[in-house]
Amino acid sequence: MKISMNRWMKTLAIGGVALLIGLTTTTAMAQQGGQGRGDRGDRPAFDPEQMRQRMMERTRERLGVKDDAEWKVIEQRLTKVMEARRDVGFGGMGMGMFGRGPGQRGGQQGDQAQDRRARFGATPMPEAEALRNAIESNAPAAEIKQKLEAYRNAVKDRRAKLAQAEKDLKAVLTVRQEAQLVLDGMLSAE
């Protein structure tokens, strides 16, 4: 009984410390005059191009590419892979989570999701929008089936473009470089 009481006391103490840290952080943020999520203060605005450039520089270092001409070829093909991967990932999948939920027609949540996808440069899928509209408008089953087939074909096309982009990139990489990009999640392990 004594051992479990000690564990219970330790758990309670850790919980109390976590609560105290949380309250202290909240109080400190409130005392900063409401500078929260919307007001970034002196921090510069997010620049996706600058972030992409830094990521490419780190990738070049990890791949051990010294020659500028070699890097130019790899970087172009790697960029195509990243764009194709982004389009497969944001191509309308998860629209219930990132876009409008059932019964919602646009509105703030849908607009925010569209902004988020655009910020990351994803190409919108008209087939996904058409399918969503058919579902929301309670279209006949035959129409939904046709829109679903069009959506599936569009996703297959995007996946095929990704596979081709990866194949083109692998053609200019050493085995070591390919392995590094697989570990980094920039190439599929398949």
- Our count of helices gives 8
The profile of the biggest β sheet is:
none
Count all strands and give the number.
Answer: 0
Question: How much helical structure, as a percent, in the residues?
Answer: over 70%
Distance between the terminal alpha carbons, to the nearest Å? 53 Å
Coarse morphology: extended
What is the average of the pLDDT values?
77
What does this structure look like?
With 190 residues, the chain is an all-alpha fold. The protein has 2 domains: 1-30; 48-183. Helices cover 72% and strands 0% of the residues. The protein contains 8 helices and no strands. The model is unreliable at 92-115 (pLDDT under 50).
Task: Describe the structure concisely.
The chain is mostly helical and 190 residues long. Helices cover 72% and strands 0% of the residues.
List the main descriptive attributes of the protein structure presented here.
72% helix; 190 residues; mainly alpha; 0% strand
List the helices and strands and how they pair.
Layout: H1 2-31, H2 48-63, H3 68-90, H4 95-98, H5 107-119, H6 126-136, H7 141-170, H8 175-183
Helix pairs in contact: 3-7, 6-7
